[in-house]
Amino acid sequence: MIHGESRSAKVDRDAALLQKPKSRKEGAMGRKAFWAVVGFAVGVLAIGSPVMAAEPAKKKEQPKAEAKGEVIKWKAQTLWAAQETPHKTFEEFCAKVKRMTNGRLEIQAFPAGAVVPTNETLDALKNNVLQAIHVWPGYAAGKNPAFAALTDLIFAYEHPWELDAFMHYRGGLEMLRELYKPFGAYTVGVMFWGVESWPSKKPITKLEDFKGVKIREPQGMEAEFMAKAGASVVVLPGTEVFSALDKGVIDATNWGTASINEKMGFHQIAPYFTYPGFHSMPVGDFTVNQKEWDRLPDDIKAIVTTATREWCWDTVEKVALED
Predict the structure, then answer these.
(1) Which architecture, in CATH terms, is 72-194+281-322?
(2) What is the DSSP letter of 49?
(3) Residue 68 confidence class, pLDDT cut points 50, 70, 90
(4) CATH number at 207-268
(5) Distance CA 228, CA 211 (A)
(6) DSSP state of 50
């Protein structure tokens, strides 16, 4: 208390001191505290609860691993007997496809006649009894004569590369695919085994020698030509040729190259043959059911297409060496 100051004056002075404005620093701190409270209140209103903790960010879900594809199994019948080289190279082709697709496509190879007769293979393919065939398309000449004309134009080619060039670079393969379309079939690719031979029980050195000869020929253009040359044409599947020669049903045959004839034992009965061949170099195909082809993944389609090209030249070279 100041000397001489009354008690009431002292009270007034103390009250004034309490109401004295704070320093600039103290004022700023006060304002910060105020706005902090306001901000907190606004936050409470915005999120609904002052104690709600922020949820941790969810981890991005990893895509599930692709399910292992189903194993697709096909049955395929060839035009060859089991011991013939082109059938063996076809079996190697099937094994290669299985290996290259990591087992996703399995093609089981059957020799001629094992599932259906040779001349019924296209119907079996259309009806999905077989999912693939390896035949000479000319067996379907009864359905469309163009099959034989396109795939065995006699006296036309001297070497497989000529026929290969026509099929792949001059529209032959596209034409064959068009022929197969009405039957619900798609030709993946083609192959060859070389110019064929004529095993015979008697020497044939000129065209006149064919007169009166009973000769096995496939249906189509070649059979018609031989008939005009004076031969007596007998249409038989290749698997019946040996028996027909042995029983005298035929005197000569048109079937495969010289080495293929030998594997079938034709030389035991018909020791005369033409070599090198000159009259016929057929196209063999690998044709599949269109719906079965469409359901294949693109990578398997590419593998099968590439493997078919390799199989073609594997066969050409192996048969040529054996000839």
Answers:
(1) 3-Layer(aba) Sandwich (3.40)
(2) -
(3) low
(4) 3.40.190.10
(5) 9
(6) T
